[in-house]
Amino acid sequence: MAEYNPILSAPQGANKKPKRVGRGSSSGLGTTAGKGNKGQQSRSGGKTYVGFEGGQMPLYRRIARKGFSNYPFKKEYVCINVELLETKFNDGETVNKASLVEKGFISSKSNSMVKVLGNGEITKKLTVEVDKVSASAKEKIEKAGGSVKTAESKAE
User: Fold this and answer.
1) What whole-number distance in Å separates Cα of residue 16 and Cα of residue 30?
2) 133 — phi, psi (to 5°)?
3) Is 112 exposed, middle or buried (0-12, 13-18, 19+ CB in 10 A)?
4) How many CB atoms lie within 10 A of CB 105?
5) Cα separation values, 130 from 55, 121, 146, 154, Å
6) What is the largest CA-CA distance in the chain?
7) Averaged pLDDT for residues 130-149
8) Pairing mode, if any, of strands 113-117 and 132-133?
């Protein structure tokens, strides 16, 4: 049998036995099982929802809804750096949403747009066709001999 090693054992009081609720009167938590007598919390399923104020009209319903939220119209971008394009793509390849899904950069179910950022260096000649490209990324891609087409430039 292995020797006792104080370094590998838990300190005194770290591991407690779980409370065994509702196991008879001698357990100390019998009869009402630590829930007290009567009332909503003592019943099974007796919970309230977040924001419940005892039947009073909750604050979130008392306050008027005002203003405008841009949330439904928010545009989400998946950002990909130039250094990742350098590692995963070969010379002369096209970088678009389909090729990024194929290489595992983005999910096929993803509805977000793609933006290329300029972190890192690139030496390969790539054709980049995405929704947005930062100025530094565009400069680096064109410097390497590649070309950049964005959704904004297609609209013009």
Assistant:
1) 20
2) -140, 135
3) middle
4) 17
5) 53, 19, 14, 10
6) 82
7) 94
8) parallel
Query: pLDDT by residue (tens digit) across 13-47?
Result: 889 989 898 899 888 888 998 899 999 989 999 88
pLDDT digits (tens, 9 = 90+) for 78-95: 999 999 999 999 999 999
Distance set, CA 18 to CA 15, 21, 23, 30 (Å): 9, 9, 13, 15
Q: What is the DSSP string of 12-72?
A: TTSS-PPP-TTS-GGGSS-TTTTS-SSSGGGSTT----TT-BTTBPPHHHHSPP-S---GG
Average of per-residue pLDDT across 121-143 = 93
d(CA 148, CA 79): 16
Annotate 119-130 with DSSP letters as a single string. Answer: -S---S--EEEE
CB 19 within 8 A of CB 29: yes
Q: How many CB atoms lie within 10 A of CB 129?
A: 20
Per the model's pLDDT, the better-predicted residue between 111 and 81 turns out to be 81
**Would you state the pLDDT for residue 7?**
74
Q: Is the pLDDT of residue 56 over 70?
A: yes
Q: Is the pLDDT of residue 156 over 70?
A: no
CA dihedral 44, 48, 49, 53 (to 10 degrees): 180
Length of the chain in terms of residues written:
156
